[in-house]
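Q: Could you fold this chain for me?
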Amino acid sequence: MKQLISKPPSIPLLTLTLLLSPYGANAATPKIDLARMGTVGVAGSFAGFDLFDPSKNITFDPSSSTLLVRATDGSLSPIAATNQGGSIQAACSLDGKLYVGGLFSNIAGVPVQNIVSYDPAARSFNALGAQNAGVDGAVSSLYCDAQSHTLWVGGKFRSPVPLDASAVQQYGGAVARYTPANNSWSPPPFVGLTGSSSQVYSITPNLASSSLLFGGSFLTQFGSNISLAQNISNPNVPQSSGATPFSTSLVPVPLGGAEIVGSPSSQTSGYSNASNILCPSGADGPGNSWRTLDGSRSVITVRTFRFITASGVRLGNTFADGRGAKTFSLTAIPDNDVLTLTYMDPATGKNATCSDACPLAHDSSVPYQDFLFPSSRTVTGFQVTITDWYGASAGLHILQLLSSGAFASAIGSDNGDSCYAPGASQVQQAGSWRTVNAYTDIAGTTQNVLIATFPVGTTPANAPSLTYNPYVSASGNYNVYLYVPGCQNLQDCGKRTTVKVTVMPGANLPAATTTISQQVNDDTRQLVYSGPIYPSTPSYTSTVVLALADSPAGTGSDGQFDMVADGIQFLLTSPIAGNSTSANVNGTLTGGALGFGFYEWPLTATAVNATGVLPNTTITPLDGLATSFYSALGPSASTDSALSIRAIAPYADNQIIFAGQFNLASVGASNVAAYADGNIIKVGGSGLNGIVNAMVSASDHKTIYVGGAFTGSADGTQTGYRGLVRYDVASSSWSAVGGGVNGVVWDVSMVDNQLNVAGNFTHVYSNPSDNVGTPVAGFASFDLTSSSWVVDGGFLIGSMTLAVAGDGNSTAQYIAGNVASSRQYGASGWAILENGNDGQATVRPSGVKLGAITPSSNPAKVKRHAIGSNPWLSAASSHTGPVSKRQTVGSSSSLPADAQSPAPAVLAGAYWTNSSTSNQVVILGGNFSVPSSPAGTGIALYDAGSKELKPLKGNQVNGVVRSLLVSGNTLVVGGDFTVAGVTGQGLALYDLQHEQWLSYPDQPLQASGGSVTVRSVSTSTSVPNAIIVAGSFASAGSLSCEAICSWDDSGKQWQPLGNGVRGQVAAVDYAGSNQELMVVGGALTLSDGTPANVAMYSLKNSTWTALGTAPGTVTAVTVNNFNESSIFAAGRTSEGAPFLAHWDGNTWSLQNSGWTGNTIIHQLKLVPLQDTHTSNSILESDRMLLISGAIDSSTQGSMSSTLYDGQTFYPYLVAASADGSPGSVSSFFNSYSTFSFNHRKFLATGIVILVSIAIATGIVFLLLLLGIFWTLCTRREAGLAHPNPEDDDDESSFRHHRPSSLLEHINAATRTTILGGAGLAGAGAAVAHRKGDASEDTHADPDMWARAETPSDVMGAAGMMSEGEPGDVNRPTHARYSFAGGAEGELPVAAGQEIMVLDDRDESWWYVRDPTSGREGVVPASYLY
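A: Sure. Below is the predicted structure, expressed as structure tokens.
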């Protein structure tokens, strides 16, 4: 299959190295509760990433070969690597284990010899046989035989090792067998294959899995001196361009005794009898043709009332008076199936298929056409329905049922004359036979069979026998079947015994004898011979003898044996040379004929020695390929080691496509050809112009996918294949697979309608004409349904040699090769994460991919960032030397220079709910292109419902987007860019609903030097109409507001923030119960000159305050759950060292991160956990700090995100750029604006229900008492104030004293009991903390909007569903009307808004969640639909 390299010296180096660390790398990765955060995206400058797993944290050595497993979602996980210089070339799965072969001396540190087994369950490798065992040379192919539980091994070796000298002599080379059950090796039944370069590249089963087909570079030899291929065929069969290539081999079934009805038949004399067309004795005309009534559809029905095995029908049209059949259909009897037929189109000379409107040629030069069934079929008759006609009426001249080869009945009278046959098949009886009438499987019908009864103990010579002499019209390979009537029908089961059947193949070949049992309950057909039949004359009849077995089985009944005889059938599997219209290159197979590159081994055959001269009795239908191939290659077959068959693909019985490296000038085929009908024939023209390394067939074997080192057809008429091509068997034509790849394909496999391609390439192409491809490296998957390359999957850089599927019990796929870099998930700068089944994060496939940016021909004012690796700071990989003056850190005067980010890079993300579709839309910003027409840049919209990626409509961003904010239907975009038609740079507003850029007054942001860069756009709930814009700029229009400014969206004007600050802002976050405190990080000083790299601004009183003295310039900042006394900041000190610091309300404390000077931090974010950690003075137990960027740790290596619990760092995500170097993460972004950190402890469901009932009962009782007391008091007051009852205004009283629903009070009380004191406010009550104490929640959420666990969550947590519980929680619904929701606990919604139902047990009020904001509350049920 693949060209192997020379075996290198053994270097026992395990290249998959686990990174050990006392800082958490080996501890279990903490589980973030992503579901609490809504939809969570990760963005950055990367092409792939791993979610950290300490057991898989490895490095790669491209000089070794790495084995990886590919999951159903395309994600990749490395398993192990070989020694340096090793290669993996073949693999297959058997009984839950993977067997791997190639050229290597160890794998995963286990010493082996070129082959090994891998147990996925135990994750262990083991040698085959003894320790350090294997084979003494390269393994090129493996076949796992699930039926015999045997592993077949092919390659370039002599024998397994270790073996003693005598055992080695049992192996002929190139092939060996391994039996896992006893962990032992054995030679193949044919000893081995030798000659030429003695290498087996391919081991493939035939379609029936009854034979193995070996392809490679080796010689075989057959030893008879008799000419086997006699070129004998029936000369009486007329020639027709509508005939099949083997028409003369299919003897028409005699239908003289059948019932034939044509309706409606013509009344014209000589044309009314449909029997005239079964075997017409003369030319088309009266007495030899049949017509239907003028203008009528017609049906011809043929019933034989016995089962016949047929392969098709032969139809010849009538031409008299311009009449004839135009189209027809064929129905099988008794199944009544309309059959799909295959025929040769006389007009094109190509195969075609039809079913309900099969065309019949109306050309007198085409006397007939053969229409074949998909496979041989047992019928009792058939029906031809003529649906259209030429002239005044339809008609036919020939109608014949084609047999599957030849046949003979034990009843002599049933052997009628066949059309064109020189005589009928014969049968000869010896001894006493009697005719018995037996029922058939056809209701109400019987058939005659023969029975011979004789005493037990009769010798075979004296016992009755029967000799069949079926007429065989042409040479071919046949399966011979004996029909045995069932004993239950004939009521003689006790008398049945065994018989021997002897078949005479002809041409002086030795007879083949088979012993079979006739003790069968039901009618059966038993195979008695498979091989060539060679007629010696055109009137040749074969000989089959049915006789008593040499050692009859059974004891008989009443001292008697019964022997039964029905019929014999010859089923043609393939013609032999001389019967095909294709080019014949093999001539005759004569004594001592040499074969090259191919050998077929029937799995049930008798042992032979294929390294010597093979007897002709072992010849199989496909062995002619070997001799034909040798003859076509000439003497070079024995001397040119490059010549080989490397891949084999069967597509029909005894018909195969074979490919490799060869040129057959006599056939006109290069590197790929077919063997069919005893001949080598061209496929799809002249073949391919380069070597073929691998092939794989579709499940129907009608399409074959070919991979190798070619670019088009061998004759140059077809181009654009680029290493990968599709061959259609029916049309014999090639077509491109996408646009191919830009290198060599070494292996192809198919899983779930996806074509997996492994090789040495770096790009794939969508169309043959494409010049720009999609970057991949060594492995790609092509979806055959959508005809496109698969976007989702793992990330890989390497030259791959293997792509195979697991066994039927596993969905795993395996790939192998020289890997430079690999990550579990491939992603073009962004991905969506969600909780997996094990609690760890997993990636939700997006089905889309961002692209690189093609340089613009019209450069914009802002230079596009096209190269680099991080959002706005220098990449870790870029900072390998001293920091330049422009990048000086630690100073309050400037931030590090904004680094360029290689496209595609996503630097910001946001979410928006499209009201027209109710779908959630992910908005991405950064440096990338959006594959579309026309292409977009900088901003992309991803519709999670339709999985559609599209750019913004209108003018595109020219530059880099660094921040995004969605406010209603307005998208606020910040960064370093311009947009044509939008004033200024660095900031723009876009109307998502109307899909257009918005204009704002001519007050653009301006920089005193250089360009404007906006790094943060945000809002505070305390100032709802204000958008806080921060970054690097000097003013907004004429307003001086350096680095940070407020845009009043209602007044459409800029507002300063107090006295302002000077410098540059990197990040903004908020604190306080109503986000009234803004925390800003960067390189800053206050207006009075106070250094303040972290400053706090009060939105209430417009004052700035420096938060102590931060350790250096700040690049990221975050507030712990709005608590102004718990703030984290990261950046660089004045010495250039990275730092992480915590503010406790009084002082900054450095956290011992162990980061090196290359580290850049882009984002800090507090995330909720599924579990808890030990609480400490830095962080509460229910949350961790997620740190993202380009992180380089002296103890943990490179990573892109890490988690911190206040004491320990846990690597979380490791990203890689497109060239394999470390990537970076710019941000995690989530759809819920607020979420809960709290972990609530719940009682058992039963206890909760009882407590709830008790509390509710108490509340009801209390309410009743209060009601009684209130009634008494009001009546007393009413009596004093209104002596006259008529003066009381009842309606006014009702309006001012409108009671709340008693049921709502009970529900509220129950919910409060279940959820704890927070009630509906839930986590919202914990939005801020008491100053100086980060562990207690004291601030109330004034809006009472907080995400909290619902009653349905409690029930679900308890694992129970009681009557009255919601049947389907977390289901989406929509608001029919708008609901203001002004009361406590109510959720305001807008008409058409999508919300999630959490609790629907109350028929009036449903408890719901807004998926956009994460807020929860009750809404009237009638308002929802």
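A (continued): The longest strand covers residues 369-390.
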